[in-house]
Amino acid sequence: MTNYRVCVIGGWCGNRLYMVAEHISELLEKEGYPCHVIGHSVWENYTQPPVANLVLQLLPAFTEAETGCPVIMIRPMLVDLDHPATIEKVLKQVQADYIV
Amino acid sequence: MSSRIYLDYCATTPIHAFVREQMFRALDASFGNPSSMHWAGADSKQLIKQARADVADGIGCLADEIIFTSGATEADNLALFGTLRLFPSDKAHLITSSIEHHAILHAAQLLERDGYSVTYLPVDEHGLVNPEDVRRAIRPETKLISIMHVNNEVGSIQPIAEIGRIAREYNVRYHTDAVQAIGLFDVNVDDLNVDLLSLSAHKIYGPKGIGALFVRSGLELAPMIVGGPQERSLRAGTENVPGIAGLGAALNLVRGHRTEERARLLGLRKYLIIGLQAIGLAVIVNGLEEKTAPHVLSISFVGVDAEMMLIRLNGEGVAVSLGSACNSKSIEPSHVLTAMKLPQEQIESTLRISLGMPTSKDELDTLLDVITRVLPRVVVQ
After folding, report:
1. A91 in contact with B at a CB cutoff of 8 Å?
2. Which of A88, B68, B154, B258 has the fewest CB within 10 Å, making it most exposed?
3. b/e map of B124-138 (b: 16 or more CB within 10 Å)?
4. pLDDT tens by residue, A49-86
C-alpha cells in the first residue's frame, strides 16, 4: 500500500464531498495508483489545512503555501464527477508525484 | 473572532424583549387547557382571544378569521391541501409561481402526485410574477392561486393586490404567503384582495413554532389535523398558548414601527451597497430596487465562491446566507435565482444579506471590513 495521501476538500454538502472522494479513490486505483483518499470539510475546519501529498478542492479553501503540497481546484466535479479536463489534471499530478 | 454580527433576518429573528415578556406572562399565568371549563382554562382562553384580536387587527380581518398553526409552513400547507382536497383531483387546478417557498412548492408537488394539476408561473429577471400570466393560466377548474407577497431570497415584492383583482374577477380563491412582508409592510387582507394569508411569528421577533392562516369568512377548508374542535375544527390540538401570546405581541410590536423601520432599513441597504462598491468589488444586486423589500439584499460577488465567503465570514462572526443548497447528489442552485435565469456562475457567487431591527451602521461597517479582509481568499481561481 502507498503512503500517498490525497485529500478532497469540500463545504456544506458533505454528501457530495464524500461522493467525489470515493470516485477519485476508485479512479486512481483503476489507473494503477491506489491512494489513501480522505475528505475534509471546511465547515468543520477552514484554518488548519490537512496533511496530504495532494489537495483537491471543491472550493477555494487553501493555498499551496498553506498545504505544502500541490493544490488542484476540482470545482467542476460538483456537477460532473467525470469532468474530463479536471480528471486529466488530477491524473497528471498523481503520475508525477506518486510514491509507493 | 470579532464580535458576532447577525445578518440573516430572513431566516429568523431574535425574540424581542417585549414579546418575551408577554410570553413569560402567559407561561406563568395561563397554564390551563383553553378547552377546559374552569377558571384555569378560561385564563388561557382569554389570552388566546386577545392574541387572536391582535393578529386580526394587524392584518385588517376579523378575529374569527385567524387560525393558529405551528408556523407558516403548516399555514401554507393548510391553504393548499385544505382548498384542493375539497375537490376531486381531476377537477381542481392550482396556480402558483416558481419562486415560492418550499412549503408551497413541495405541497404543490404532492398534490400533483395525487393527480391535481398545477401551473408554476415563471418570473422575470427581477423575480417578479406578471399578473397577466396569472390571468392567462386561469382555467374553469382553477380552485386556488397562491403567490407569495415578498420573496425570501431576493426580496421581490409581488403585485399581490393586482393579482387579487384578477382572482376576484374569475372568482378564484387567492392565497399569499406574507411571512417576509408582515414585519415591514402594511398588510391588509382587503386591500390585497386575498382570501387566505400565511404568517409566522419567528420572522417578526416572535417565537418559533407558531404562525397563523387568515381564512376569509365563509370559505370552506378541509382540515389536515383532526381531533378536537380547536381553531374552528380546522386545526385540532391543544393550543400553544405562550406561542400564540408571542405571535400577538410580535405583531403588535412590528405594527408600531413599520413605516420608520422600512425607511431605516432602506437607508442601511443603500449604505451597504455603496460600501461594497467602494471596496472595489464587482457586485450585482439581484432584484429591482424599487420593487425589493428593504431588509433583503441578494448580491452576487463576481468571481467569488459564495460558500467559501460565507464560511470565512462565519469564522469572523458574521452570519449571512447562501443562494444554493445541497442535495444528496449535487449542489443545487437556488430555485429562485434559477427561475430568474441568472447564470450558474452568478448563482454560485450569490449571498443573501438580510437586515433587521438590531442592524446598525456600525455592524455594516464591520461587515465591510471583514469582507475586505476575506476577499482575496475566496476568489475562484
Report:
1. no
2. A88
3. eeebbbebebbeebb
4. 889 999 999 999 999 999 999 999 999 998 899 999 99
Compute the distance between CA of residue B85 and CA of residue B82 in angstroms, rounded to an integer.
6
Q: Is A16 on the interface with B (CB under 8 A)?
A: yes
Torsion, Cα B305 B310 B312 B318, to 10 degrees, reads: 150
ipTM of the complex: 0.88
- Domains of chain A: which residue ranges? 11-97
Cβ neighbours of residue B48 closer than 8 Å, sequence gap 6 or more: B34, B68, B239, B241, B244, B245
Q: Is A93 left (phi over 0), alpha (psi -120 to 50) or beta?
A: alpha
Beta pairing class for B196-200 and B173-177 = parallel
Grid cell of A98 as nine digits? 506518486
Q: How far apart are CA B376 and CA B353, in angstroms?
A: 20
Considering B326, B360, B361, B365, which one is annotated as catalytic? B326
In terms of CA atoms, which chain A residue is nearest residue B306? Answer: A59
What would you measure as the largest C-alpha separation in chain A, in angstroms?
33
Per-residue pLDDT reduced to its tens digit, B181-220: 999 999 999 999 999 999 999 999 999 999 999 999 999 9
Each residue's pLDDT tens digit, B80-105? 999 999 999 999 999 999 999 999 99
B190 against A16, higher pLDDT: B190
The answer to whether residue B326 is catalytic is: yes
Q: Which three cell numbers stand for residue B115?
A: 393527480
